Amino acid sequence: MKSSQKLSLATLLLLALSLFIQPVSALQVTGLYSQRVPVTNESDAERDRAFREALRAVVLKVTGDARWLEDPAVESALRNAESYVEAIAYSSEMLTVEMPEPAEPIADDADTIDVPAVPLTTEQRYVEVDFSATLIDQFLTDAGIPIWNSNRPSVLVWMALQNAEGDRTLLTADINQDIIDSIQQFAESRGLPVIFPVLDFEDRRNLSEDTVWALDKEAIRRASDRYDADSVLSGRLHFTASGELVGLWQFLFQDREDVFDGFASDLEDYLHTPLDRITSQLASYFAILPEARNTETVSLTVEGVGDLQDYSALIAYVSNLGLVQGVAPAAIDGERLELQLDLVGNTRQLFELIALDRDLLPIQSSQTGNEPVLHYRWTR
Fold first, then answer.
1. Is residue 322 part of a domain?
2. pLDDT given at position 310
3. For residue range 243-253, what is the model confidence (pLDDT) as tens digits?
4. Which of 17, 35, 125, 375 is the Cys-Cys partner for 54 at CB 3.0 to 4.6 Å?
């Protein structure tokens, strides 16, 4: 800062609190506490069923792990789903359903008349259920179930497909929309940001069908760099002549590689297994228990805080990190700002959350007494 722009720490803090700056993150998942459910009518019984179904879906998104649906606290909450509802709204959509062709053609004397399928338009009713995030977070916390913050890591998906004749192709939307739809539906049900490569000239130059099929880790990492994804899921899928689906999966997250088999007779089952596995893995890594006793204090030093707007944006950003319980400015020295953070997790989790946004560029960190000091540069 120029000397004329310098303000006292107290003045800066008061001005920052008077401004509202919404932090921007490409990895923010919305709608975690809302769910749309199809209904047949607006009766009380159907509404209560929809509430239970919606709450089950919301718990799955908020925790990211299906195993918590079997927890007694969740089962108890599902029986009393209405008490967590904040608002509802009914809506309708006109759906077109293809009617199946007749099993036998209709004969008229010597001529056979083929009867084509006739599209049928029907109305489908839905109820959009909004739950109280505070009440859901509280019952999960009381039950000791970790909550996954809305700031979540992205997953880039590469797939190589091989038919019974041995021909291989990369997964593309123009010929494999059913696979993409299944992956996207799963991702939506878990609140998982999924990215598909555009498969333009650069992608195809960097990564061929055979390279993905071989699960060449280094080649896949290099080709994935342009997408800046937090993790990469690569898979190969062989459609056998007998109708079975056989393959292999590779999950790259940070410096770890997880390779596992795939086998199923149904496409949705084949895709669900690896997606469930990696989502549970990410959830167990990032989810926290908001009122857990393993609290920690950490010093955060940030360079490049050039003016009041930077200061305000940084304070707002740090305050919105899921495991930060308290933020206290400690010192200002030119363009360097020191913050004291009270965490409801640990330093490793804070480091990983910050890495998801890329608004702070890490500089070498240090240790002061018993407290770790994280050192970053503000890049927004």
1. yes
2. 84
3. 899 999 999 99
4. 35
Domain that holds residue 228: 155-286
User: What global pTM score does this model have?
Assistant: 0.74
Residues of the chain where predicted confidence (pLDDT) is lower than 70? 1-27, 98-118, 290-294, 365-372
Instruction: Indicate whether 149 belongs to any domain.
Output: no
Place of tokens 């091989």: 162
Indicate the SS3 state at residue 22.
coil
The span from the CA of 35 to the CA of 55, in Å, is 8
- Spatial neighbors of 165 by CB under 8 A, at least 6 apart, are none
Residue 198 · residue 205 · CB < 8 Å:
no
The two tokens of residue 16 are: 């920052």
CA dist 285 and 91 (Å) reads 37
- Amino acid residing at 112: T
Name the pairing type of β-strands 119-131 and 85-98: antiparallel
Q: What is the CATH number of the domain that holds 216?
A: 3.30.160.100
Number of domains into which the chain is organized: 3
Report in angstroms the alpha-carbon separations of 375 from 1, 202, 333, 362.
Answer: 19, 35, 14, 6
pLDDT in tens, 146-162: 999 888 999 999 999 99
